[in-house]
Amino acid sequence: MPAVFLKDRALLFVSGAEAQSFLQNLITTDIISLGSDEVRPGALLTPQGKILFDFMIWQEGDGYTIETDASQRDGLLKRLTMYKLRAAVTLALRAEEGVTVCWGDDADASQGARDSRFAKAGVTLVRRPGKHGKGEEALYDALRIRLGIVTSGSDFALQDAFPHDVLMDLNGGLSFRKGCYVGQEVVSRMQHRGTARRRVVTVSAVTALPGTGTEITAAGKPIGTLGSVEGDHGLAIVRIDRAGAAIAAGTPLLAGETPVSLVLPAWSGLVFPTSADEASA
Questions:
Q1: Measured between alpha carbons, how far is 33 from 42 in angstroms, rounded to an integer?
Q2: Alpha carbon distance 233, 146 (integer Å)
Q3: Other C-beta atoms within 10 Å of 17: how many?
Q4: What are phi and psi of 44, to 5 degrees?
Q5: How many of the other CB atoms lie within 10 Å of CB of 50?
Q6: Which of 115, 136, 157 is the last residue of a domain?
Q7: Is the dihedral of CA 43, 15, 120, 140 positive or negative?
Q8: Is 46 helix (H, G, I), strand (E, B) or coil?
Q9: Are both 224 and 120 inside the same structural domain?
Q10: How far is residue 116's CA from residue 133's CA, in Å, rounded to a whole number?
């Protein structure tokens, strides 16, 4: 059972009599339905519906632990404090540094909380505050790349992606039933109109892939950008309508000068559109 310490993760704790309603009315995740042993992705959006901060969240004791990238921690705490006003909520930094993730048949949920994103892909992965393992972080990156699970910074830039772009509408991180929250109107409109065209794909090549940030093209036109890379596999967020049209027409897809294949994560249930009309949209 691999146990990998992610040193660049940081933790906040939200507690108090109004902690649940405070978060429920603010973030994308439906925390009322959150299981006691479950961790879900979530985001705090801009009013325009783009991801301002992304994180994992789970219930712990009388409050909620929020795990985010260490570079986002202070900004997220400041933004939550701004929204707090007079709510009966306490916001605090947790003392633990980093998070340990372990997965496989022997992953023990009693030692942490099960990540809903990996569960969707058929893998039991548990997240636990603090350092409890020595596995190489590349093991975790290889797993999430294979399953099509993105992370901000490596795979997308904050304030540049909608929740649909990173599959939050499919992995438990985005609710369409719980009522209003910041940016809710925009993402609900995308959902009901079916206008989400940018999606996560896994990328593979016969040789090693070029670096993160390399443009992916079809017939010389950009369709996306390469994100996390491990050898000959990687992740990207691409225009799946344009990718689908290229695949249907037999047009080569390139990451820089490297020929690549694109596959939508099987757990997502998504397929590439093939309509030429959609490709020109």
A1: 13
A2: 8
A3: 12
A4: -105, 120
A5: 19
A6: 136
A7: positive
A8: coil
A9: no
A10: 21
The last residue of a domain, from among 67, 102, 136: 136
Chain centroid offset of residue 162 CA = 11
Distance (Å, whole) CA 72 – CA 191? 27
Structural domain range at position 248: 197-279
What number of CA atoms fall less than 13 Å from residue 64's CA on the CB side? 29
Tell whether pTM > 0.85: yes
Residue 90 lies in a domain: yes
The per-residue DSSP string of 245-263 comes to: HHHHHT--EEETTEE-EEE
On whether both 9 and 131 belong to a single domain, the answer is yes
pLDDT in tens, the chain (281 residues): 789 999 999 999 999 999 999 999 999 999 999 988 999 999 999 999 999 999 999 999 899 999 999 999 999 999 999 999 999 999 999 999 999 999 987 687 778 899 999 999 999 999 999 999 889 999 999 999 999 999 999 999 999 999 999 999 999 999 998 889 999 999 999 999 988 999 999 999 999 999 999 999 999 999 999 999 999 999 999 999 999 999 999 999 999 999 999 999 999 999 999 864 443 33
CB proximity list for 134: less than 8 A, separation 6 or greater = 3, 5
Whose tokens are 């980093």? That residue is 98
Residue type, 238: V
Amino acid at position 14, single letter: V
